[in-house]
Amino acid sequence: MKDKSAERGTRTGFTTGACAAAAARAAVIGMVTGCVPGEIDSLLPNGSRVRFAVQDGRAEEGSAHAMVIKFAGDDPDCTDGAHMTVDLRLLPGQAGAVTYVAGDGVGTVTMRGLGLEVGGPAINPVPRRNIADNLREAAPALLQQHGIEVTISVPDGQVMAKKTTNARLGILGGISILGTTGIVKPYSTAAWRASVVQGVQVAATAGHGVVALTTGGRTESFAIAALREERPELPSACFVQMGDFLRYALDEAVAQGIELVVLAVMVGKLTKIAQGETITHANRSEVDTDLVAAIARRIGAATEDCEAIASAETARFGAELMVERGLGDAFHHALAQAAIDTLTAPDRYGRAFQLRVLVCDFSGVKVADVWSPAALAQARPASAGRTGIEHLPDDDQEPQPESIP
Q1: Which domain holds residue 205?
Q2: DSSP reduced 3-state for 53
Q3: Against a cut of 0.90, is the pTM above it?
Q4: Is-contact 248 192, C-beta < 8 A?
Q5: Is 60 exceeded by the pLDDT of residue 4?
């Protein structure tokens, strides 16, 4: 159901999981009554109820079909308008059983670390529970005697999946069925943040004790080339595009007991990390060019150059000026060390992991490679091996992730 009363730019939408649950609820009513309703009040994971329009409903003995068109509100979601299609099949005598199948356009899990069975459908735990809750609430007598097989399909889901991180997480053949509350807030970062956390979880299961965190495409290509030259066995799963979400990535690395964290960054993000920001979006905080100037001063830059750097709008200006002055290597090394000092401070991450900072310029050429001391020996965290995103807050107020290199 679209929120027509809200001002454009603020309209909320619904997750793939919520839409699939609504289609499943309509279909099971059709299975019981012989007629799939054209509208349905569906239960969301957060406990609220929303009316959804239902299309293409049909029911036969022992099966039913329904579809709900996903509305993402004003969020720029690649699954907006997706036809969330559900086919139900009766499982005679399997009282209370609800099983799930990936239909066309829904991904299949091929790697451990997501909290889902390898070879099974990429339908996350919360949507599974939400679908089952709707089935049992709408058709309690049926579920007391029989089970139901739920097949979710999404036409063009394979195309949509190319705009997600699914392949990196080992989800192949389509999109994931997602959602923790059922609600999509405009310009929410929840999906991006969740993919970062799940990426770290998958990296932990790879068994190499390392995760390389990058800010985007250029830094990832740089990191892959640099690390595979040393360790060619590292799989793609060990490389996670964290975007601006350093804090969530590092928190999960600690929770998983990962021994070595590699940050592959360029000077702008590196400066924000050095100044203490762990959510590095451009709209959240400005680059502290006074810090850049202080680094330049520390390595012997001329006073007038330091003043120019402090007055500049970007950290890149300072870096390029130091390169012109023949101080580029010293500057980038000192800035990387400042970032390490910030992140490994006792009130931050200390020595929970060893930190390696790889810095490249805008051409992808390595300009610094700095290591922290080794991690302190410690017991394996109780949270190591956890999967899923249920521990994340439902929503945040961070800006939409920008497209960063």
Answers
A1: 190-371
A2: strand
A3: no
A4: no
A5: no
